[in-house]
Please model this.
Amino acid sequence: MATQILEINDLTHRYPDGDGGIFDISFSVNKGEFIILAGQNGSGKTTLIRHLNGLFKPEKGTIRLHGQDIFKDLTHTRKTVGMVFQDADTQIVCDTVFDEVAFGPENLNLDRTIVNTKVNTVLDQLNLTQLKDRNPATLSGGEKRKLTIAGILAMDPEVIVFDEPFANLDYPGTQSLLAVISALNKNGQTIIMATHDVETVMQSASRLLIISRGRLVADGEMTEMIRHLESNGIKPPCTCTMEPSFPPMSMNPPCQ
Amino acid sequence: MNPFMFKTGNSLLHGLDTRCKVFLVCMVSLSLVNADFPACGILFGVLAFFTKDIGLRIGQTLKHLRYFILFLIFILLSRALTISGDPLVSLHGMTISIQGLYQGSLVGLRFFLIMITGLVFSATTQPSSLKSAAQWYLKPIPFVPEKRVAIMISLALRFLPLLIQQAQETSNAICARCGNLEKNPVKRFIRLTLPLLKKTFLSADHLILAMEARCYCEDRTDPKFEPSGKESIFIVVSLAFWFCLLLA
Model:
């Protein structure tokens, strides 16, 4: 039986101006899963994922991490559930790649030797070692995204939540980032990714959640849920549009 | 790329502890207050040695500093023309005095040496080490949250170029819609600053969330310094130089 990490029950969050928000959302996250959270712009994806590590407090409902309310120990929650934001530029805090990766472990007040070891390991894992003295401002878009992932990985999270990780990335940047994320998942890392670009990640993901107007409208295996994309305003993968009787034999056909 | 950016290297100054370098910069600045031409000459020689040692190209550096050098020439001329003394040249009622020229050259040279000191310091010091050194110096001062100040220095260093870039982008977006045709400077200022401020505050909001998401707190791991062992020699020499100038 799969180990449950996160359990979200009846989560509701309304914004004071009445626009947007999320309503009665319930689902759970098991260890090693790769979950795509798909939805239109403004559907509530970002609002939902910002609850997962306690950045937002729900109006109603609970989030449990290994059975314990996430707000009981926020530091533990944020260490366990790492979050990679959409805009890398506003997430990067320090003036060198090394310091940026060290920022999280330093906040946990770890010993300097442990911080350095963690940073070097993560830089090596993501092939960023040669950039460690560079100013993050001089990195390419793809390198910046990798750096933000490195900053989270250095905190040893169990779950990494991505908010539109492929936004504003070119094709090679997207492929390189996807390879990194897929490799992390293959090594046992649990991934939750909010995106409206399902096609890019459909091959790597195991589960699809669809959110529409703040409500969870579909939750299940990728191959079964994919047919619900278009009706909820999300671009379906090319395969779906070419072959109405999806699922087809191949999940990654050439798109002409 | 400008000469004030950090450059990796193995020079004598690169290996020096940043706290010592901050101290040396202070000592050089203090010494220059009392420095006459011979002392300035000695400092010039020392700085020229370090500039060469860290691999800065003199010609390229001077090219980057051309506006500053123009400013120094302006100081020299204004001093030479306004300080009364023995006339050196008189032209159209304006007199350049020997004393004015001497004073102007000395002030200009002092400013130049301070600039070169800053340049050598910033080219051999990582911004993160500077932040750590500031934290170390502020630690003994009561009621000063040194860790908060250090993170603020880090954020300023990180976000200043980003702000400049955003200002440029906003300006370009305004020009793309012929906003540059607006002659009223107040309107032009408002059109640039309002969207820029909005963007900046939004970015600040995102930054706060991103820092919170990574457990930001003030009880953080302290920075580690790695002295090269040569710091004491530099400190003694700089103190001795300063004392000599005080006594002279």
About this structure: The beta strands of chain A are 4-13, 22-30, 34-39, 60-65, 68-69, 81-84, 159-163, 190-195, 207-212, 215-221. DSSP finds ten helices and ten strands in chain A. Residues 248-256 of chain A have pLDDT under 50 and may be disordered. The first strand of chain A starts at residue 4 and ends at 13.
